[in-house]
Amino acid sequence: MEYLKAFLLGGFICLICQILIDKTALTPARILTGCVVTGVLLGAVGLYPVLVDWAGAGATVPLTGFGNLLAKGTREAVQQDGLLGALTGPLTSAAGGITAAVLFGTLAALVFPSKEK
Predict the structure, then answer these.
(1) What pLDDT was estimated at residue 54?
(2) CB-based burial of residue 42 (10 Å sphere; 0-12 exposed, 13-18 middle, 19+ buried)?
(3) Does 116 fall in a domain?
(4) How many domains would you assign to the chain?
(5) Would you say the C-alpha torsion 49, 50, 56, 57 has a positive or negative sign?
(6) Of 10, 45, 49, 80, which one has the greatest count of Cβ atoms within 10 A?
(7) Is residue 96 situated within a structural domain?
(8) Cβ-contact 93, 76 below 8 angstroms
(9) What is the tens place of the pLDDT at every residue in 81-99?
């Protein structure tokens, strides 16, 4: 059942983004930024943790989950370190994911070098 919930929520997020791509003049960069901001806003009103509890990876893997992670890290760091936490919190909370993306991106570039068309 956990996989079904993750698929349903993750699929719904992807569906909304695909509709925005197909039916609006928004660029993909604006849609992706909107996803991150949506995650921040849903986390601010306390709705995103409910989604994470219900769907697990279906809520944490999409970009909305990344936005929620940044906001959560910022809140915790500001409570602990004051205003300086607004600068360090997002980087600290997302360091693992950012490091993995850079590492795996570098490995993919080494294994599959780019070619001219």
Answers:
(1) 95
(2) buried
(3) no
(4) 1
(5) negative
(6) 10
(7) yes
(8) yes
(9) 999 888 888 888 889 888 9
